[in-house]
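A note from the maintainers: we've had questions about how concatenated examples are separated. There is no special marker in the raw files; a new sequence line simply starts the next protein. For clarity in this README we add a label.
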Amino acid sequence: MTIAAIAFSDAGMALGHRLMASVPDMTLHRCGNGELATWTADSFPRNEALLFIGSVGIAVRAIAPHVVSKTSDPAVVVMDELGTYAIPVLSGHLGGANALAVQLSRACGALAVVTTATDIHGLFAVDDWARRQGLRVANPERIKWISARLLSGETIRFKSLYPISGPVPAHLESADEEYDILISHRSRGRDTALRLVPPIVTLGIGCRKNISREAVEAAIDNALRRAGCHPCAVSALATIDLKAQEPALTAYCRDKGIPLVTYSAEALSQVPGTFSSSAFVQKTTGVDNVCERAAVRHSGGRLIRPKEAMDGVTVALALSEPHLSFQEAL
């Protein structure tokens, strides 16, 4: 987790340096006169977490113009300059602010002041568990509904397409029908269920030079729809290194927030399996198939959708298996 920290005094800076010794990927800035607004505007979208070593009021006023959604906002934690308290104030579960506050408190002997209802009652926090498991929340508006029912003492039924190790938390039970939570990479499911999607689908791509961004997205949307895969399940776009700078591919990945992964023709030719073969592709790229081989090479899994061509773009889908656990769910 990348953490941008800011302090306002010598004591705050001293605490920040102590924390940096225990917390990786943390940068520390001494706030000068009039710098807070600029620092926050720059740091808020660029980091997974912000740490304010000062008062809660200062932090709240600084971040207020930038708060958008619990699914995209970074974790924000406030610590007093003596290191007495660590207080998560934004994105406690999905953003990981609660967990970060606990981590920071352990690093300096502070008290983590966690106020989210499921935590203080010792109940399963579905959004925190989803973050720890790397699951994406397709409909975050349903989180409150799940949490409210848990707080009322109700039992929540979940359906998972994959094994989940560890003991099932209290007030949860597995179900095949009439479920409240669905853990699946597929696009179909009960409309009323909270959808947790593992990013386990790799898009293998081949395309003409200077293909349009619109053509790439249309081909990908078509492949996902025909394969029955939820868009949130996409983990990466994989292709041959000849396409590493293809404008449409780099733009698509940037817009979707996924990596563009490339492999040499030699690396792709060594991927085991049976793939469709093209003499033209072999002559052009040095390997008989790009999209299928690239998808399997990156995912390490199996091909679930073979190559399909659409307006100068070829797309294939490969699926890996997630490793989910209820261990330390609380």
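[label: protein 2]
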Amino acid sequence: MYGYVLPDKPNMFVKDYSLYKAFYCGLCKSTGKMCGQLMRFTTNYDMTFLNVLYHAILDKEVKFSEETCILNPIKKKSVVVDDELTHDIIDINNILSHYKCIDDVIDNKSLNKKIADDLVIKSRYNKSKKKFVKIDEIVSKGYNDLRLLEESNCGSVDRVAHPFANIMQGISKELFKDKYTEEIGEMMYALGKWVYIMDAIDDIDDDYKEGKFNFFLVNYEYNNKGQFLLDKKGDLEFILMNCYNTIRKNFDKININKYEGVLTNILWYGILTNTKDMLTRKEKCKKIRI
């Protein structure tokens, strides 16, 4: 995935940050147990957020254990214990990772992504798609629709961002089932749109230099990222803040009884902080590990 759905650590209570890290590490370790150690590299912030939200919506209490990590084999840390809901998130991540690899191979002729998909991800994807047939169809259609828009050199932000936004909304509908509400759907749609636009801004310099599609480049005479951010700051801020306001408005209407502090920090502060950072960042975003 893209990895922009981050908490705002400086404004996060220690207990909430510890809980978030436990979810992140738990997802990573569960992925290793379920899919093999190499698949742990697909662990990301977006899926950690979805895992917290999934447990919160289903009102599922998690358990914790103190375990060492492959990156730190001496010091133990708190991790969320493996459960069926986490397995669901891992399966969805396997599906998303497979299609993201395919998309990167088509867009970038990425040999590394092709090798990773062929040797590691695809076998896990084949098992995960049998469990979530509908979600696999949603993701496949979304990426196909996106490819068609890219091939037509579409310059409409709303049209190009729609397929990925629709993927996130569709996943939430299938995942939450009878717990799904219109507010959840609208929040996830806006979040998907925000992520896609953030990624387009982040990649614009590389896309320009490599002659790749980026909807911002269709209607803008690009020279460099600094000038782009200066010239288009008002438009970019309007688009991203509209997504943010929709996310926050709908989140506030969702009944959350568990892990509210983590989710509020991510959706109220993390999204806002990351938006402001992206609009002033001339270099490509470097996602640090939690």
